Amino acid sequence: MKKIISILLLLLMIVSCKPTAGKNSDIKQTASEYGSQEDEMKYYFTATGNEPFWGLKMGNDNIVFTSLIPGKEKLVFASVEAIKAMDANIKMYKVSNETSTATISIQQLECQNSMSGAISPYKVSIEIKNNSELEAKKIGGCGKYNTDYRLHDIWVLEELNGFKVFVTDFQRELPRIEINAAENRFMGYGGCNAISGSIFYEKDLLRFTKVISTLMACAPGNKEGEFTKALQSTTTYSIENNRLTLSNPSAKLLVFKKVD
C-alpha cells in the first residue's frame, strides 16, 4: 500500500512540474501609468490624471476618455485636427459625440503626477460635460506623445539633399543612425565621426536634437557636415517600403534604408 501511495505522489509531482511555456505568449506586454505597449503603438498621445482618476488615449481613428466620473466612465470621440495657439506650443481639440462634448488642451510644459511623482513633458487640461449638463467639469493631468514604433530600427543613408550617396562621399562607409524610440535617443555614424543625440517627437513631427559627435579629422570632400546639418534641419518624416524619408517644409533632406 505504501508503495502505491509513493507512486501516486511521484506522478502528482511530475504533473505539477510540467512546463507552462505553452500557456504564456512569447510577446511580453509592458505597461506604464499611460497604458500597455499595445496602447502606445495604437495611440500617438496618452495622458492620465488623479482626483478623480481618468485616462485619455488619442489616435488617428478615435479619442478615448475613461474615468471614475459618473456618466463619463468611457466616452469615444472621432479624431479631429488640432487648433494650434500662435504664441505657444499648445494644441486644443474640440470633440463631441451624441452624448457629450469635450475640449482637450495639450501644453508642452513639464508636469508632475500628483501621486506617483513621475515627470512628463506635457500638461493636459480637459473640460468635459454630458449634453444634459449646463457646466463642464474641469480636470487636469499629465501626458506624453508615443514615438512612432516604426522608427525603432537601424537606418543606412541612401540619399542626401536629393542625390544618391556613395561610400566615396564619406570616410569609410555610409552614414547610419540607430533610433531607440522607447528612450527618444539615437546613435550612429556620420560618415567620419560617431554621432549621438536625442529626438523630439510629436504627432507627424520629428526633430533630431542635442547632436554630438567625436572630433576625428575628416578627409577633404567628406560630406559628414552636410549630412549632420540635414539631420538637424528635419521636421517631418515618412516611412514606406523600408525607407525612412526625413524632410522639412523646404525640401526632402535624407532617405535611409532599413537594415537588420
Automatic annotation (TrEMBL):
Q: So which domain of life are we looking at? A: Bacteria
Give start and end of each DUF306 domain. 153-256
Concerning InterPro entries, the annotation shows: DUF306_Meta_HslJ (IPR005184), HslJ-like_sf (IPR038670), Hsp_HslJ-like (IPR053147)
Q: Give the keywords, sorted.
A: Signal, Stress response
**A Pfam family reported for this protein in Swiss-Prot or TrEMBL:** META
Task: Please state the span of the N-terminal signal peptide per the UniProt entry.
Answer: 1-21
PROSITE patterns annotated for this entry?
PROKAR_LIPOPROTEIN
The name this protein goes by in its record: Heat shock protein HslJ
Q: Which organism is it from?
A: Flavobacterium defluvii
